[in-house]
Design goal:
Length: 99
């Protein structure tokens, strides 16, 4: 049993609560949902209390593979290249004039 004082109220993390926290974390549930479910079964706990306990226990979020989304590349046209060259030339020449 682990005790934590917050606003004069003893918050007790029992072994059962920690086991339930580990189960919810392994299932990939968020800290908010975990706090709501633990509060429904045991003593009321906040989302921040759950986040702190997860941090202190060293639990990490389960790895979720996300689909890689590739952005379509814009085709490089001659006109685009010409604009870039002209812009660079104008910038270079305007800097020379200021000296």
């Amino acid at each position: 049993m682990f005790m934590n004082r917050y606003n004069g109220i003893d918050k007790v993390w029992t072994v059962e609560m920690i086991d339930r926290l580990r189960e919810h974390r392994a299932a990939g549930l968020s800290a908010t949902v975990t706090a709501e479910r633990i509060s429904g079964e045991f003593v009321p706990v906040t989302r921040n209390a759950v986040c702190g306990k997860i941090h202190r226990l060293g639990l990490s979020a389960p790895m979720v593979k996300r689909a890689k989304v590739e952005k379509p590349k814009k085709p490089r046209t001659r006109e685009l290249c010409r604009r870039r060259v002209r812009r660079a030339w104008l910038h270079r020449n305007s800097c020379r004039r200021q000296r």
